């Protein structure tokens, strides 16, 4: 949070649970944590979560939690039998279970209670509902789901099944007086979403999504250009700097431009933990951070070079392991590993 605030970050989008692990220790469903986390040492207690929220707040940062459903939920199933769709050999990450089973009525009281808790714990006005990468092959191979779809006149229409789930989830979240964000697949699949929905674009065709969504009056945020967990040799921060969420269409109206709220810089954790998170993030994340705050006419990468290097040195002087930004030059402050 300290380094983020130094670099003009003001939102922490916390993707707090996923397929491999459920580290958030819920007071409503404690088994989600005790059975779904990697281990008892790899969890976020309620005190841990409060500490993150307060520490971020003191540095001008709002923490927005994400509970990604109905996909990315394999870790939920260990504590909630029958919650996930059963599909032997066709589930998430090589398992026998796929997304949440939308046809199981027992799912929705759990979601109501869990999201009510999340709304109480996190003071942010926003909650991220996920909705990305919902693979239909598991639903297609489950006979109970097929029978339910036939009975509800949506046979073979898996977007309609997803719409059924999302409609009920949005009704729950609407009752909690929270604004919500969804990954772009919710929009791309033409699900029945409310006008207040914020569309979060992460796929390569983001400009088309922005154009269509803003034409329909939806607010948008961008991450597609800024998956900085993906590393490459050289000065890759340059391409981050050159991506502007306002550039989706040179003919966009002023009202469309006003619907572009900004963006988030993503550091996904498949190959990242506390051994490499800081130096992989910084100062590369400074480039999109400036792009999101700077006027559109400031585009000269050469103008950015001395400033990002100076900021990197500033981070080193304060004890943060920011990696080199340029192939030449040096910083007068050497990073020293703390014993």
Describe the structure.
The chain is an alpha/beta fold and 339 residues long. The chain is 37% helix and 11% strand. The protein has helices at 2-6, 30-36, 46-58, 107-121, 137-141, 143-151, 158-174, 185-188, 206-215, 237-241, 254-258, 277-281, 286-293, 301-317, and strands spanning 11-15, 62-66, 84-86, 97-100, 126-128, 179-183, 198-201, 219-222, 260-263.
Question: What's the total number of strands?
Answer: 9
Distance between the termini: 22 Å
Structural class: alpha/beta
Tell me the β content.
5-15%
Mean of the pLDDT scores? 94
Task: Estimate percent helicity.
Answer: 25-40%
Tally the helices: 14
In one word, what is the shape?
Answer: globular
Low-pLDDT stretches are none
Radius of gyration: 21 Å
Order of SSEs: HEHHEEEHEHHHEHEHEHHEHHH
**Largest sheet, described in full?**
5 strands, parallel
Strand order of the largest sheet: 5-6-7-8-9
Layout of SSEs?
Blueprint: H1 2-6, E1 11-15, H2 30-36, H3 46-58, E2 62-66, E3 84-86, E4 97-100, H4 107-121, E5 126-128, H5 137-141, H6 143-151, H7 158-174, E6 179-183, H8 185-188, E7 198-201, H9 206-215, E8 219-222, H10 237-241, H11 254-258, E9 260-263, H12 277-281, H13 286-293, H14 301-317
Parallel strand pairs: 1-2, 5-6, 6-7, 7-8, 8-9
Antiparallel strand pairs: 3-4
Helix pairs in contact: 4-7
